[in-house]
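Quick start: what a row looks like.
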Amino acid sequence: MAESSQRKLPPGQRPIGSILRWGIDHPGIIQENPVIRPENWTLTVDGEVETAIKLGWREFLQLPMVEVVRDFHCVEGWSVLGCRWKGVPFKALVERAKPREEAKHVWFECADGYTTSLELGDLIGDDILLAYQLNGEPLLPELGGPVRLIVPDKYAYKSPMWVTGISFVKTKELGYWEERGYSDTADVWKDDRRAKRSILRF
């Protein structure tokens, strides 16, 4: 999405002033706003890959970093404009893990028990980040810190908080909200909020 288009809201969205709304309205699924000290955080990358990876905080900070300004859209209809995210491009992990040809999907697990998945092809854009900063500050625990995924053109339930595990997989599994009727594609520009069919696993 071109930078100029970021000022255009997707259908059904309204702007609000603070992304803190997300942390207030959506505490952790199992544990409310798990507080993870960065030095105790680890990220495991495994599944159908040539090289499994386990990163601590120091190793994570040594990966390539980028900063992007993108809007943040909640499926409930609110958006926060012009969020300045900094983090590791997801494609940098792809380059290191080297997914096998049969790995078409990516499964995310979080410290609070939340899960979601995306197609690998949806995760290689330049603005798809494992973010650890927002607007120049460390990502607060209530916003998913120390590290969360950011997928700007998907509703926020596809940008999981407190990410601790990433698996490249052959077969899609629907995550927490997708199993409860939310769209698996979650395209904000198509107003794609609810599942159009009742099949939960495919």
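That is the whole record. The first strand starts at residue 14 and ends at 16. The chain has one domain: 12-27+37-190.
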